[in-house]
């Protein structure tokens, strides 16, 4: 029941919000916050109850008939891979609500409803064990995100929202076709059952894999289908960016892990070198893009392209280190990029500009902001002692085992990452405080610290105690690798 | 003692946390005490551990393991610390010199707004450096490795209001990262070859690794070492790093951090022994770096830049030694170099402090009367650097030259490298005393000479206002001077490699040659700069002299070459990628193009609907005929 | 002399086609209405021909219900054609009231 | 939907048993029972016509407005009542599982026809509900409207039940005539009458082709009854080229009614011309009926399998229809992209939806097609709800006798009418086929049937067309939610209760159906019956 509750609480809260008059913004915010905290509590209960030694299969499973004629079931469950993604999603929602406390003034009720529905949708994707259920969640969450960008976003929000929506839908509709084709082939939507059936091979398998892969690659986003991301990120409100970077991008990777690769192992292995190369191009290309950006949010968006390239690279190394690193790095990226967006949001709230050139010398003015931003920057560039390093290390180790050149070229991304992030930091925080607006800027307040410090804590914690994380994921990855081998990958 | 070695890095780290988080409220005095005390504690424990290792039989060590840090499948990295003879020596140097520099800094940084921040960073640096030194596996070492890089970045850009300082910090960090990528790849290769990250396991496995794998592993690791230890081609960051406060230059960019590359090679000595090809490269690069940096040091006008290039040059010596397989000799030079170069930097710091942050030697001169203590101590440092007989530098440097000349273990003598080394020794003595001559002899030029650059803060300080620095700065100098004079008598090579056999024949003659070269250099410099400055000017205005001077003072245009060949192209590629690939090809042509195509098609088809009924009927008829035709055709076919 | 079925069908196809041509080429709505009637009548002819064809010389039905049904069919089609003409004229009246024109190509408000 | 539709199972066996049951010259009570819903419609329609005729003088004299409004209330009430009764009758007939024949096999009642009838009745009901507001607002409360709708509904029910070519043609013509008149209902509007005229000319034109096609089929087989035609074809007695030509022309004629490219050209103009409620009514009911009949005709009248070596009639028709489906899907959605008027956009999107339905029909014709008829029926249901709701909205938005049809007119709707906007969002999401709405399942069933039948290319085209369609549905969402209003929408017109009811009900139904898509008609009816 706990998974269902985690899924339902946001929806229930959203319905509750509908009953509160729309001008009572404080009540709306508090209700939404409590709802999201309750979700977080339930997801933490999942984390607490999770048994790392459970062996093969999923935990907390629930299975009910949903659409009997298609044998679609409401079938949910989690394993080590989805566990932390669920927790991450649940964690970022209260943070998103908190960070919008002051910045979102219009249509407060709708905003929180969209945010909560988005949470439900995202968690649903991570827990669904029925292909069609997964697809339903996958699409359901698009609409709130679309509205978040389109209604509460910046000046170019509509264009960005439409681009985001059509881009992602184009991919997922093709996947929809592949899902139906697969259903025709296997006669079931149950993920576990499909794992047991002989996989689709040959051209059909390849085409289906490509349809899945395109959809997931757009979400990741993998070069060259990444161009929606900078627009969506730049225009989205802070909360939207946080969720987008923190969770939505992970859906693509998760889709690869759970569906695309085990369903079509033959095609996946065939495509792996190509996808790895795309990932590496993405790593370098995304990093290079950061050099040219004037808008800090856009810069971080492109850095996401680069970072997610690493994640894909690790996954397609198809070895324990790579996959482990991939799962870890998903969470890491959610935390650190999420934090970066929060920080930029905080700056934007104060200065109403995101152009890097408008800043400089903030370090003495806002020391707390400067310190947290710096730690986050370090986490983002993968400094040991913080979380980013462990993930990147494992990914590169995995990639190295696959092909030495993967690691070598991907490693360039680390160097470039250091350059653009430190330059960004320098341009914002160092130098003379020569503008009056900057000199008068306020430092972070208690509310902002309340959602930033936990993230910083997580960065340090995961940087030092990653085995706590990996031990929970390890058995699932072993199962996954075995599955891949059995299915001819 | 082995229960407590974790405190060696932890104490400074706690110091960092306390100073960093509470420093602003604690006040400068408390900050200084915490900063120094934490390092002193680490020093005490290092001494104690070292004594334990020293007393015991060879090959003993203290080890402590705190469980896993990274774990994935069969890959595992632990928080494990080890103190053996090598790391013991390094710990002593790091904590010892570090302590002195901390004490020095209490005086040097007095009154700076970022006082607590400075000590926090320094403590963090100590912690990272000590992790680097005491790590029992290469990944943990990498943690320290990156940590010191970070602190280096922070401290170079310590005065962050000057953007140039920050840029220098970024340059240091990024160039280091280039090396770190090599290091990382080397780590991966090690794991692929040995299945473990622990030094003991790697060393044990080293003889079994096939030679090409060993070659690549060592080459990659050496790239890492090049970055951190400022060797060709990655040395460019170190001179710029002088933007940081002088104690930082002394501690990080002379005594400790920059030597960690040498330490890495020493740590994995047996592995490098399995890759003789790489050793050749190491030795060659080392010798070339030594020469190149010495040539550049010739014409620098910034007091710290001279020392910085000298550091690069001395590091070259260390790599030359390591490249000969004589890791212990390299470490020996690391130790002595730490003493005298720290002394020189701190002395230079004292000068700078006294001159209110003037660094341009052209605006100095004649200071020996106003700053007698500083002059004396600086002179000792200069002598040691020049390898004046019986000083620390004399022994360690000449041991290196001697090995290069006579060969070591299985390594053949490399006489070319030896001659380069010897030439460099001459140059070293020359530029060192050129500096001493410019700073301390002659007449004071600070009030008259126009400012060389806008950055120098002093505005024509009068000579009689120049004052000797406070006691807190002088005491560390005295200690270091003592060590620079006596450090050469430490039998470090024999302690580190108990079975070491340094070939005896020709050793004495080598020492004599070294001594002569050093004295010759010193004499030449003093003669030229003090007696015949006009002749020098004459030479410099002649065509070859101009060329040589320009090459040297413009650092052989290496920065410009990098700028043109690497940085500019990357920037251009980034612009092209953004505007052409990302914006134009992907976004506009492909993404918007497809939507535009759909719209255009829609627009075209829309014109079918022209509003006239007969047209509609005609389309209908055409459709009907088509359907009929297709049906009948399909039936026939 | 007996008319072969083929010949009848050609005839009705011709009548139908004339109707089609009329609809396509004529501007006057009345003429178009007439052409539409022509099309239906052409088909009617075919139905009747088929009905005749299904009756053997002996007077018994060749197949199923075809023969008798064809007559019903024709009558119903005639009725429908009449109704259709009525509706058409009604619409035409409304159109003429609004547009003061009976030229079909004048009505081009709706397009695109 | 894993069962084979019952009407298909007993396809041939029924033909034989029914033939034995014929008792010529007798019309039994059972016959009337079979067409009871249609009879109810005819009866109410006539009653309303009478009422209107005999009270018209009343309403146009200087009597108080009260009389007039009470009259229209009565008409509205009667109209809705008739629909409800017809619906109840249809539900009752749904109960009987086995197909039955009536009126000498002119009428065939089976679960398929009953299901489609119910959808038609549902559409009629909603349209009449929405018309209450609309007609009042546009001052067009003539009794004919209800009468025409009822007659149209009756003929559609008969159309769906037709088992005989004569019946088929008769029903389609009466239906069309009602539709022509509905289109030009706003007879004072130039547009309305122009649309009616175009619809009439082209409709009659296509009727000619349809009739020609039916005649050729009749001529080739000598039969008028669908099962007999099938038997004749299966027996190889039919003249093949004559038959094929007939089938092709029938497809052309029916293609016109459903609005398939290139026979669609009447559709945008007629949809735009007709009063919004009538557009809603036509767009769902006429299309539902025509699609259902096309499917039935092709399934019942074509032979199940061809001889070895030559392509069977079904196969040929299926490939022709595939081409039409592809062209229709692409055309409708591409042109809808370029519209500035919401109403016209919806018209073109309706063409696109026809394409999806044709995919379902193609799937039904091939092997493994037993899933497809149910898929088609399922598609019609949400489509009905969405279309009616959205055209009701168009009517609701109209002010001062003018429609507000441009995209810009919808700006800021979410602030001035949040609840309405939310419902509209649901409806548009359903149009785009995104879960958790019924539109998603509709597409799912169709594409699944297509893939099951091996028509992956059709499904792929459908997917591509859907991607295109996202843009114009989103465009409306963008205007509703993301752009601020340039001018405030005037206060609610005094009568908007019914419109609101229709829109809300449709949105709620779409969500419920989206969450529990297995609530098929059958089970729903069964649930009601028990």
Which SSEs are present, and which pair or pack?
The complex is a heterotetramer of chains A (489), B (637), C (112) and D (530).
Chain A lengths: L1 H18 L5 H25 L9 E9 L4 E7 L1 H20 L8 H20 L3 H10 L1 H11 L4 H30 L4 H6 L5 H18 L8 H8 L2 H26 L1 H28 L3 H20 L4 H32 L10 H4 L1 H14 L6 H16 L1 H26 L6 H4 L6 H19 L1 H21 L3
Antiparallel strand pairs in A: 1-2
Helix pairs in contact in A: 1-2, 1-4, 2-3, 2-4, 3-4, 3-11, 3-14, 3-20, 3-21, 4-5, 4-6, 4-11, 5-7, 6-7, 7-9, 7-10, 9-11, 10-11, 10-13, 11-12, 11-13, 11-14, 12-13, 12-18, 13-14, 13-17, 13-18, 14-16, 14-17, 14-20, 14-21, 16-18, 16-20, 17-18, 17-20, 20-21
Chain B lengths: L6 H20 L1 H28 L6 E11 L2 E9 L1 H24 L6 H20 L3 H19 L6 H32 L4 H7 L5 H18 L8 H4 L5 H10 L4 H8 L1 H5 L2 H22 L5 H21 L3 H28 L17 H15 L5 H15 L8 H26 L30 H16 L5 H5 L10 H25 L1 H9 L1 H11 L4 H49 L6 H24 L1
Antiparallel strand pairs in B: 1-2
Chain D lengths: L5 H4 L1 H11 L7 H6 L1 H25 L4 H31 L4 E3 L4 E3 L1 H27 L5 H19 L3 H19 L6 H32 L4 H9 L5 H19 L7 H8 L2 H26 L11 H24 L5 H24 L6 H26 L15 H4 L1 H14 L6 H15 L3 H27 L14 H19 L5 H9 L1
Antiparallel strand pairs in D: 1-2
Helix pairs in contact in D: 4-5, 4-7, 5-6, 5-7, 5-22, 6-7, 6-13, 6-16, 6-21, 7-8, 7-13, 8-9, 8-13, 9-11, 9-12, 11-13, 11-14, 12-13, 12-15, 13-15, 13-16, 14-15, 14-20, 15-16, 15-19, 15-20, 16-18, 16-19, 16-21, 18-20, 18-21, 19-20, 19-21
Task: Describe the fold and architecture.
The complex is a heterotetramer of chains A (489), B (637), C (112) and D (530). With 489 residues, chain A is mainly α. Chain A is 77% helix and 3% strand. Chain A has one domain (2-486). In chain A, strands 1-2 form a two-stranded antiparallel sheet. In chain A, helix 13 packs across helix 17 (387-402). The radius of gyration of chain A is 21 Å and the shape is globular. The two termini of chain A are 35 Å apart. Among the domains of chain B are: 304-547, no CATH class; 610-637. Helices cover 72% and strands 3% of the residues of chain B. Mean pLDDT of chain B is 87; it is low at 454-458. With 112 residues, chain C is mainly alpha-helical. Chain C is built from 3 helices and no strands. In chain C, helix 1 (5-25) packs antiparallel against helix 2 and helix 2 (29-53) runs antiparallel to helix 3. Chains in contact: A-B, A-D, B-C, B-D, C-D. The interface between B and D is medium-sized, with 28 and 41 residues.
